[in-house]
Write a structure and sequence with these properties.
Elements lengths: L28 E3 L5 E3 H9 L27 H24 L2 H4 L14 H8 E5 L6 E6 H4 L14 H5 L16
Antiparallel strand pairs: 1-2, 3-4
Helix pairs in contact: 2-4
């Protein structure tokens, strides 16, 4: 990316809303699809840090100012893998909601006043907790998000192990699902 173009629709003296150290004119910038400008490297570093807790979340892919998804061709190399991961976690989360029977039993999905009304994807992504295995790097369901809120802020990466890795090579395996749901 280039430094801020002369005809940009923003004041070049404004500071980057990520680093708050240098004005936008001081380094190469990108204009996101939402219209906000940031230093290219500030965005790259924000994305590269990914989620900061044990639970996988994808807020790091949001614009810091308006929360729309970060989209720009110059960032495709780093965002592509995380958007792919997010799609996989969404599919697994929706599948897990159905396995747990929450699609039929949780009243928030059928309550017109609920933020989750007819939005199983949002419900699944906010209410279920997925983690990345420290051994195989695959994602796995680790329980409901409310359980994580009860005190897992001091996690160690090496403690995050999926059922498949925990059961070992000789562990039991489902004929249909393999070791995906072994806990």
């Amino acid at each position: 990316p280039k430094c801020l173009p002369k005809n940009a629709d923003i004041n070049a003296e404004e500071y980057c809303n990520i680093c708050w150290v240098d004005p936008l004119k001081a380094a190469p910038v990108v204009k996101l699809g939402c219209g906000h400008y940031f230093h290219f490297m500030c965005l790259w570093q924000k994305i590269d840090k990914k989620w900061t807790t044990a639970r996988i979340t994808f807020n790091f892919l949001n614009c810091p100012l308006c929360a729309q998804r970060i989209r720009h061709p110059a960032l495709d190399d780093i965002t592509r893998k995380y958007y792919k991961l997010m799609d996989q976690v969404k599919r697994d989360a929706i599948e897990r909601v159905k396995i747990e029977g929450l699609d039929k039993s949780d009243k928030r999905l059928v309550d017109p006043n609920s933020t989750y009304y007819k939005n199983i994807e949002k419900f699944a992504m906010e209410k279920l907790a997925f983690y990345q295995c420290s051994k195989c790097s695959k994602t796995y369901f680790g329980g409901m998000q409310q359980c994580e809120d009860l005190g897992n802020e001091n996690h160690k990466r090496e403690d995050l192990i999926c059922g498949s890795c925990a059961s070992g090579a000789d562990g039991k395996s489902c004929k249909i699902h393999g070791k995906k749901y072994i806990t």
